Amino acid sequence: MAKKKNELWEWTKALLIAVVLAAVIRYFLFAPIVVDGLSMMPTLHDQDRMIVNKFSYTIGEPDRFDIIVFHAPENKDYIKRVIGLPGDTVEYRDDTLYVNGEAYEEPYLDEYRAKVIDGPLTEPFTLEDKIGETTVPEGHLFVMGDNRRFSKDSRHIGAVPMEEVLGKASVIYWPIEDVRLVN
């Protein structure tokens, strides 16, 4: 009888440890997310399942062009690409991104740019036009979806406070034929 009691206690301990480890990993390190919508096409597709690395920004800030997940004003989580970092000037003209006056290539937009026949993929704007400031405020990010014509992003909701960023989304794990690291 004592042996069965001891075995039951060992199984209970193992189960409790597994649950605690899963909770720590889920809430502090990595979390699953489902892409909802077409705003990140062609990079991400509607209903792609991804892993969000919550640990990625505990040491530093995101890098330009990282794909991040953040709490949006509508009590939803959005997934977008970082375009402007704190202190940056951001401008679009002639369908080209300019950050701090320097033109940047955006190869992830090439597929959609090739299909556009009725004007630019990204309408011209300055930060002042969109957020009323000349630079991205300290502690904030300027983000945009890759599907520029159909994305609700910083052009509509303003700069994203860093404390609203959940983490970096870099791995698609479902559907199985799309499993990959994303850039």
TrEMBL record:
Signal peptide: none annotated. Residues 8-174 form the Peptidase S26 domain. It comes from Bacillus mesophilum. It is a single-pass type II membrane protein. The keyword Ribosomal protein does not apply. Pfam families: Peptidase_S26 (PF10502). InterPro entries: LexA/Signal_pep-like_sf, Pept_S26A_signal_pept_1, Pept_S26A_signal_pept_1_CS, Pept_S26A_signal_pept_1_Lys-AS, Pept_S26A_signal_pept_1_Ser-AS, Peptidase_S26. One of its GO terms (biological process) is signal peptide processing. Its EC number is 3.4.21.89. One of its GO terms (cellular component) is plasma membrane. It catalyses: Cleavage of hydrophobic, N-terminal signal or leader sequences from secreted and periplasmic proteins. The keyword Hydrolase applies. Keywords: Hydrolase, Protease. Gene3D superfamilies: Umud Fragment, subunit A. Belongs to the peptidase S26 family. CDD domains: S26_SPase_I (cd06530). PANTHER family: SIGNAL PEPTIDASE I (PTHR43390:SF8). The active site is at S39, K80. PROSITE patterns: SPASE_I_1, SPASE_I_2, SPASE_I_3. GO terms for molecular function: serine-type endopeptidase activity; signal peptidase activity. This is Signal peptidase I. It is found in: Cell membrane; Membrane.
